[in-house]
Amino acid sequence: MQFELDRGSREPLYRQLATSVQQRIRSGALPPRTRLPTVRQLAQQLGVTRLTVHSAYAELQAGGWIEATVGRGTFVAERIEQLVLPPEAQLSGDVTPAGVMADLLRMSQLPGLLTLGRADPAPEHFPLRNWQRATELALAAGGGSLMIYTTAQGDLQLRATLAELVRERGFSAGPDEVMVTAGVTNGMSLAVTLLAPPGSTVLVEQPTYLGMLNILAARGVRVVGLPMDGEGLVIDALEEALRQERVAFLYTIPTFQNPSGVCMSVARRAALLELAERHKLTIVEDDIYGRLAYEGAATPALKADDRSGVVIYLSSFSKSLMPGLRMGYLVAAPALIKQLVPLRQAQDICSPLLTQRALSVFIEQGWLHSHIRRMVPRYRERRDALLRAMERHFPIGVTWTRPRGGFSCWVTLPAGFAETELYVSAISRGVAFAPGQVFSGGAPSGAHMRLCFGAEPPERLSDAIVTLGALLRERGTHRDLPTPALGDYVPVV
Questions:
Q1: Which residues face 74 on adjacent strands?
Q2: DSSP state at residue 483
Q3: pLDDT tens digits, 210-260
Q4: 332/359 same-domain check
Q5: Which pLDDT does position 111 carry in this prediction?
Q6: Same domain, 134 and 216
Q7: Residue 371 needs a FRET pair 20 to 30 A away by CA distance; which of 16, 297, 321, 429 works?
Q8: Could you give the CA distance from residue 111 to residue 65 in angstroms, rounded to a whole number?
Q9: CB under 8 Å to 265, separation ≥6 — which residues?
């Protein structure tokens, strides 16, 4: 039984082995009840340590792929049907923000799937040891008092730490202006609940984050999408919308926008703030990617130049640290925070106090900054691997952005491509992406897809692009599109 490992890859050997076994099970090459080699046999065959094989088998067993019985051996799981069904059979079939979000969350549980659909950080590089140390330090200091409820606004120690942290994004705030949230999504939901009653109108960039579109749709809020270009939101379009619409607020991701990857220019930011002040327009700024800059320092947050208090600032640690923490924060005037607190209290009372205190310790110890410094070069390498692979394998007529930060690349397809068919076909071949239409606050302009590079190592990104390139040539309205020479590549928004 042969399994190949790439010792030059940064992906751990045990994970490569686990993925290889998963792929062979899914293909039918290893049917249910097939006996697998013992840990010792496979270690000798591959020239790796027994710990490597044991770790791979443990991961496979945890995922339900294999079963181990003392005295009998290790076997492919007998009831494996739910894992080897074609992934497209598990899709919701609902190509809407809510449907695609559900699909992407479901796909994250399918081992072996090349996932370019979710804008996630790299799980193999999570700083688990330092997080454990932070938790132990928090428990040592707080003991059982950390296992009780806290205020809906959040732990005061963490809010004070966050008030210091935002200075790095160019503005100052006091603990009374900070509210702890369950990720950025919770902050967005609170802002929508407070500012945009059902039937009201919210302006968004087009394309924009599908999570916000999902929240607005669930609340019965009308969405108006505004065009973007290479410098971000088109201000003239915003001004025209403000003349025509009564607007609850504008939602924007000015720094490394999701899904386009575009960073709003300094001039546009100034024009946006001037216009907002003149029209008394509230701006909800999502700055979740602001610390992940790959080419020099990131532009300060929009909030940094907000002199009249029109900007509500949202961020979280889902991209810069670990999404499973579900820890984010909102910065706004104390009067607005006071209105948001009972809304959060009515939802889930508060975020876990132990997690809040551990996060505060983690930041104060300098572990957040050291983690980001370590990860930025790795994410830059993954972005570059994605761009190189698209240059090499995507057909002429397909264009894309070149993000200077964040995790998202926006790909524009030639006219006539059927996004939904491409989405389903790619999953059936083991590759997931997010179809562009779910990022639109209005009628989408053309066919697109969002490709994310944070969660996959460079070699797996290349494999995914080879598959997508072949599908683009097969399914495009222009059959047999040639693969471009490197000089034919022109990135566009």
A1: 36, 68
A2: P
A3: 999 999 999 999 999 999 999 999 999 999 999 999 999 999 999 999 999
A4: yes
A5: 59
A6: yes
A7: 16
A8: 9
A9: 231, 232
DSSP string, 411-425: EEEPTT--HHHHHHH
Burial class of residue 492 in the structure, from the number of CB atoms within 10 Å of its CB (0-12 exposed, 13-18 middle, 19+ buried): exposed
| Residue 482 counted as domain residue | yes
Residue 7, in any domain of the structure: no
Amino acid (1-letter code) at residue 312 = I
Start-to-end Cα distance in the chain: 47
Residues 76 and 150 in one domain: no
| Residue 207, CA atoms < 13 Å, CB-side half-sphere | 31
The token pair at 360 is 């505060």
| Same structural domain, 101 and 147 | no
Write the pLDDT tens digit of every residue in 438-481: 999 877 778 999 999 999 999 999 999 999 999 998 876 444 44
For residues 436 and 447, state if they share a domain.
yes
Q: What is the pLDDT of residue 489?
A: 29
* Integer Rg of the chain from CA: 24
Angle at 379 between CA 378 and CA 383, to 5 degrees: 120
- pLDDT tens string 271-305: 999 999 999 999 999 999 999 999 998 899 999 99
Query: What is the CATH number for 426?
Result: 3.90.1150.10
- State which residues form the domain around 62: 13-84
439 falls within a domain: yes
At 27 the pLDDT is 64
CATH number at residue 357: 3.40.640.10
Query: Based on the domain organization, do 414 and 443 belong to the same domain?
Result: yes
- pLDDT per position as a tens digit, 357-411: 999 999 999 999 999 999 999 999 999 999 999 999 999 999 999 999 999 999 9
3-state secondary structure of 251: strand
Counting Cβ atoms within 10 Å, is residue 268 exposed (0-12), middle (13-18) or buried (19+)?
Answer: buried
Q: What does the pLDDT look like over 99-142, one tens digit per residue?
A: 777 777 776 666 567 889 999 999 999 999 999 999 999 999 99
- The contacts of residue 233 (CB under 8 Å, 6+ apart) are 205, 226, 252, 254, 264, 268, 272
Domain endpoint, select from 337, 365, 393? 365
Would you say 313 and 285 are in contact if contact means Cβ atoms under 8 Å apart? yes
Q: Report d(CA 367, CA 371) in Å as an integer.
A: 6
Q: The domain that contains 79 carries what CATH number?
A: 1.10.10.10
Q: Are residues 249 and 396 in the same domain?
A: no
Domain presence at residue 3: no
Contact by Cβ (8 Å): 257, 228: yes
Are 233 and 264 within 8 A, CB to CB?
Answer: yes
Give CA–CA dist 388/409, Å, rounded.
13
Domain count, the chain: 3
The residues with which 329 forms a beta bridge, in sequence order, are 180, 315
pTM: predicted TM-score of the whole model, two decimal places: 0.81
